[in-house]
Specification:
The structure holds two protein chains of two kinds.
Chain A: E1 9-13, H1 18-29, E2 33-38, H2 41-51, E3 54-57, H3 63-77, E4 80-85, E5 96-97, E6 100-101, H4 104-131, E7 141-146, H5 150-153, H6 159-170, H7 172-179, E8 184-191, H8 197-200, H9 204-212, H10 224-236, E9 244-247
Parallel strand pairs in A: 1-2, 1-4, 2-3, 4-7, 7-8, 8-9
Antiparallel strand pairs in A: 5-6
Helix pairs in contact in A: 1-10, 3-4, 4-6
Chain B: E1 23-27, H1 32-43, E2 47-52, H2 56-62, E3 67-71, H3 77-90, E4 96-99, E5 110-112, E6 119-121, H4 124-150, E7 162-167, H5 171-174, H6 180-191, H7 193-200, E8 205-212, H8 218-221, H9 225-233, H10 244-256, E9 264-267
Parallel strand pairs in B: 1-2, 1-4, 2-3, 4-7, 7-8, 8-9
Antiparallel strand pairs in B: 5-6
Classes of the chains: A alpha/beta, B alpha/beta.
């Protein structure tokens, strides 16, 4: 299933842990030149070292900071060919709790990271993909967006997370349509419940709710390697474009458990 | 049989072993998407039961090693019962089923009666046939495949026993005019994915549907040239019909990835089918 990626540059946001780290490893094994982006510097350093790949501390919500990092990547490694957006936060919260409305800043923060953060990375990566295109019919690169099944069946307490992931899923088709003329494909993955630091580090009550949702089959949480395997399948299949793929063991989340 | 032994140190590297030695049933196996799937399964070391209507294409496939060619009509209960009985006695219980048998059967809902010049309803037969092959035919093999794997009772160990991949179509969502029956049949295939995945989970069977856009197959060849051009013009990237090998690549990705279940996956180069402007309006 492994596409030959001989030294193509692959940037993974949120690459230091969870889905991002597993994808980075799979891409490295497939021969890509992997660059991790993560805002958590110590975790990033450890991950980059363990994998033997490059890493830059970067915050996806920082407009000019991301521009600078992508420029550095271009100068150091060459133009970006693959972008996998994995940076994201869950941050559950009720709209009204004990009679008090959620501070708007809580909602905005989730959108800033999950939704605007991935657009930020896309706009920085795409010019490099276009510039490096080998010819008019040649493929020019692949963008993989991490949506979530919360984009389709968000639970109580997930208004912000679901809205942000709905946005990640919703931009896949218009991006694919816009970037098709340059030979860039855009595909989303909508994972179900996966064992990652994001879900494992939720507040205990929220974590129990999330992990209580057992998929029909396989009756367990997803493994980050399975997300990575699908990402590689997508990269290796030129006909996959403009689609958001559910990867959830047939799980559909109920309103609450 | 264990399709995926998933060792504790599970890694993506270990995935490609799953198809080795597996028994896979493919319908519509003699041409197009089905044939490409057969080739992929052989490459991965599977033994393939190739089901298709009797004819030279199936005869040719019968010559390929590790192939059991079984002629039959997927819409016929008795044909498929006989086919699965033959597989069970020859090889054992299949663990992979890929349903590719299908027809386009273009038909408008009414037609002009040549003798009288009057507009009359199209006979039901042209709709019934498309539904029988594409939708009922898909269910027909699923019920027999699942029966085989369910003999061992519920999969209490959480082990995977089987994978079903069905062929829907982007026509499940955006069928063009004269594709009423085709669109309805493929929407049916897409819609039964989730309830089947839910129902068969207890036997360790996954169910996924692929929804291909325009692919280079025999079905594509019968589409009039001007319609074909419109269809391809609309594909954002890659701007060409899909290759059956790309369909097979996705079948493999589904089989190898245990977390893929209950989903319908479009594989279409980001196309959304657009009805060409009708001649009467231009």
């Amino acid at each position: 299933m492994q596409p030959a990626l001989n030294n193509r540059v692959a940037v993974i946001t949120g690459g230091a842990s969870g889905l991002g780290a597993a994808t980075a490893q799979a891409l490295r094994d497939a021969g890509a030149r992997v660059v991790l982006l993560d805002r958590d510097a110590p975790t990033l350093q450890a991950a980059a070292q363990a994998m033997g790949v490059a890493g830059y501390a970067a915050d996806v919500t920082d407009d000019s900071g991301m521009e600078r990092v992508f420029e550095q990547i271009r100068e150091t490694f060459g133009p970006v060919y693959i972008l996998v957006n994995c940076a994201g936060v869950a941050d559950p919260g009720s709209v009204v709790r004990k009679g008090v409305a959620m501070p708007l800043a809580n909602f905005e923060r989730v959108l800033e990271i999950n939704l605007l953060g991935s657009i930020n990375a896309v706009r920085c990566a795409v010019p490099q993909m276009i510039e490096a295109r080998a010819g008019d019919d040649a493929p020019a690169g692949v963008v993989i967006q991490t949506a979530s099944i919360a984009a389709f069946d968000g639970q109580i307490g997930q208004a912000a997370y679901a809205a942000s992931k709905g946005g990640c899923a919703g931009m896949v088709l218009p991006l694919a349509r816009e970037l098709g003329e340059y030979g860039i494909r855009v595909v989303g993955i909508a994972p179900g419940v996966f064992e990652t630091p994001m879900t494992l580090n939720l507040p205990p009550a929220s974590r129990d709710v999330v992990f209580a949702a057992v998929p029909p089959f396989p009756p367990r949480a997803g493994r980050a390697e399975e997300f990575a395997a699908l990402a590689l399948s997508i990269i290796g299949n030129p006909m996959l474009n403009g689609e958001v793929i559910r990867l959830d063991g047939a799980l559909r989340m109920p309103a609450r458990l | 049989m264990a399709l995926c032994a998933c060792p504790p140190d599970y890694e993506s590297k270990a995935l490609p072993m799953q198809m080795k030695e597996a028994i896979a049933v493919v319908t519509g196996a003699a041409s197009g998407l089905g044939r490409a799937t057969v080739d992929m399964l052989h490459e991965q070391g599977a033994r393939v039961v190739a089901i298709d209507l009797a004819g030279p294409a199936l005869d040719a496939l019968a010559q390929v090693p590790h192939t059991l060619a079984v002629p039959g009509d997927v819409a016929s209960a008795s044909d498929m019962e006989a086919a699965f009985a033959r597989v069970h006695s020859a090889w054992g219980t299949p663990g992979i089923l890929v349903n590719c048998a299908g027809v386009l059967g273009p038909a408008r809902v009414f037609q002009r009666d040549k003798a009288t010049g009057r507009t009359v309803p199209r006979p039901m037969e042209s709709f019934r046939r498309v539904i029988a092959i594409n939708l009922t035919g898909t269910f027909n093999t699923i019920r027999l495949f699942a029966q085989g794997l369910a003999q061992a009772g519920p999969a209490d160990d959480g082990q995977e026993r089987g994978v079903i991949v069905n062929t829907a179509s982007v026509a499940a969502y955006e069928a063009l005019s004269a594709q009423t029956a085709y669109g309805a049949s493929k929407a049916g295939v897409a819609s039964m994915t989730l309830p089947l995945a839910r129902e068969l989970a207890r036997y360790g069977i996954r169910v996924v549907a692929l929804a291909p856009g325009t692919f280079e197959t025999g079905m594509y060849a019968v589409i009039p040239e001007h319609t074909r051009r419109t269809l391809i013009d609309d594909v954002p990237f890659p701007n060409r019909p899909g290759r059956p090998s790309e369909f097979a690549h996705m079948v493999r990705a589904v089989i190898e990835n245990q977390m893929m279940n209950g989903s319908v996956v479009r594989i279409d180069g980001a196309v959304r089918m657009r009805e060409p402007a009708p001649a009467w309006r231009t």
